[in-house]
Amino acid sequence: MLRYLTAGESHGPALTSIVEGLPAGVPLTEKYINLQLARRQGGYGRGGRMTIEKDMGHITSGVRGGLSTGGPICLVIENRDWANWSEIMSPGAEALLNDRVVTKPRPGHADLAGAIKYDHHDIRNVLERASARETAARVAAGTVGRALAEQFGITITGHVIRIGSSAADTSGMTPEEIRKKSAKSALMCADTKAEKKMKQEIDEVKKEGDSLGGIFEILVTGLPVGLGSYAQYDRRLDGRLAQALMSIQAVKGVEIGLGFKAGELPGSQVHDELFYEADQGFYRQTNRAGGVEGGITNGETLVIRAVMKPIPTLYKPLKSVDLSTKEPYEASVERSDVCAVPAAAVVGEAVVAMEIARVLTEKFGGDSLAEMKRHYHSYIEYVKRV
């Protein structure tokens, strides 16, 4: 089974990812991982932390000569800002625990609930781990999953379709066109007219000390029929994908295919009719289901979207209450992004990639990539004969 864990704090020495279960023989390099880490740090509207950090993932185990060995893969991303926090964040008894103590929870963060849950009187113990900085480790791990998926002709494309009130129109564009156009955009938006409006909105809310959220979409092409399962609730691929995306900091909703719009329409406008031709087998003329039916891929493009709330750390502080004194106050201001939806789209690609890699290993399991490919090609031949 393919799985991963992340560890590390926002101002600790490093972020770490451990990926276990990747078969041997998968091409993987630091350059490949760092390309995705750089994408996560980009985007119009990012804050000061991105000028401090330049994330570089270092492979410390599980890869030799550019190929996975079958052993656990360890990825380490050093925090440059650690130099300024080493005395405060030290794991040893010498840590300066009375310096930069945080007792004022910020609305919209895990601060208050986390402090109560873990009995922390210094909220720094919460915010350091709950921080979206952790997503760098997830992008590194997810890129390992992407490396496996690409070996089976699967392409994963994330792009921004809304920021604030500005929405992109990508109707009529193929996933490949969306991929190419969004790659040239500072907001990962394939609609250039919408991108201009999005930038204007970001500039306006920045002046007001506010923030903006939005919606990103992930497209996955090249998926075979039959990944996932209807047999148990926790094996349904759509449920697993939704959980993966909902676990990203600030994501508040997920939909697949028509999503919530399906609740507004009659069934005749929601379900995809089936057709058959001898030279192409079963097919659909529409993809309202978004590539998943009954928790299983149906061979169409996977279409999944997630909404990201506005970042809760504002330069126009919100009202809160001090954890220690119980006195009211206005939330403190720290370095913050105005809008991080493009970064969330990159993280979204990573977590989706890992779920796709997981169901690939479940369906075509093997100890090596060569063994998995034998199982895969045998299955594809079977599907052609159905």
Task: Describe this entry's structure for a reader.
The chain is α+β, with helices and mostly antiparallel strands and 386 residues long. The chain has a single domain (3-385), classed as Chorismate synthase, AroC fold. Helices cover 33% and strands 20% of the residues. The chain contains eleven helices and 17 strands. The protein has helices at residues 30-41, 49-52, 86-89, 111-118, 124-130, 135-150, 175-183, 192-207, 237-246, 341-363, 369-385; strands at 3-7, 14-20, 57-61, 63-64, 67-68, 73-78, 155-163, 166-167, 214-221, 251-256, 274-277, 281-284, 292-293, 296-297, 302-308, 319-321, 328-330. A hairpin with a 2-residue loop joins β4 and β5 (67-68). α1 crosses α6 (135-150) and α1 runs antiparallel to α10.
Average the pLDDT over all residues and give the rounded result: 94
- Termini distance? 29 Å
Total individual domains: 1
Structural class: alpha+beta
Counting H and I runs of at least 4 residues, what is the number of helices?
A: 11
Largest sheet: 5 strands, antiparallel
> What is the 3D shape?
globular
Strand order of the largest sheet: 8-7-9-15-10
* Secondary-structure element pattern, one letter each: EEHHEEEEHHHHEEHHEHEEEEEEEEHH
Rg for CA atoms = 22 Å
Structure summary, number of beta strands:
17
Q: Per CATH, what is the topology?
A: Chorismate synthase, AroC fold
Strand content: 15-25%
Any idea of the CATH class? Answer: Alpha Beta
CATH architecture tag: 4-Layer Sandwich
Runs with pLDDT <50, length 5+?
none
